[in-house]
Amino acid sequence: MSDHSHLSPIEKIKKESDNLRGTIEEGLRDEITGAISDDDQALIKFHGMYQQDDRDRRDERAAKKLERLYSFMIRLRLPGGFLTPQQWIAVHHIAGDHTTGIIKITTRQTLQLHGLIKSGKLTEDPIRQKVAAISCGIYQGTPVLDLDYPEDSAADADANFVLIGDGTIAEVQATAEGAPYDEEALLRLLRLARIGCTDIFVKPVTISAFAN
Are 104 and 114 in contact (CB under 8 A)? Predict the structure, then answer.
């Protein structure tokens, strides 16, 4: 028997995993729990997959004597960063049927899908609130939504707002670039930001696939 004492814990798991197979297949078929074993959680990372849980619902589920709400994130590798229209449409359908419905495009030439569960179908919408961010400013004495570069570089005031779909505020960063401004000016910027974020909520960014 070979001596694995010099290996790190992760390297030991890999060494004994039958070429990174482990018991991943068996774990994903086990419907008693939404999770997989600790060793398999380490192994799936080498396949571009990660086990996660909804942190916002940990206390709620613990109070009901339920295990955490586990799901999986998968990362789809795109050779050369290219994706054909047919592949995009397929990913779109997979995301809509089996995940949160959101496709994240990363800077590592990959796509990420979140919210996959073992049963393959989400039983409830995991998105509890929409979030949007937008910038506003005071340019030449007038509040302006989503300033362009010339306006931003010469603005008297600059503010960034992160707003929640229910009307609450997650974050505000406001700076007087020129002269200070009063509370009413800040409230005007906030009202302008609400208009912009509402437009984002009802008109999300979409990507369409077209074949040449």
Answer: yes
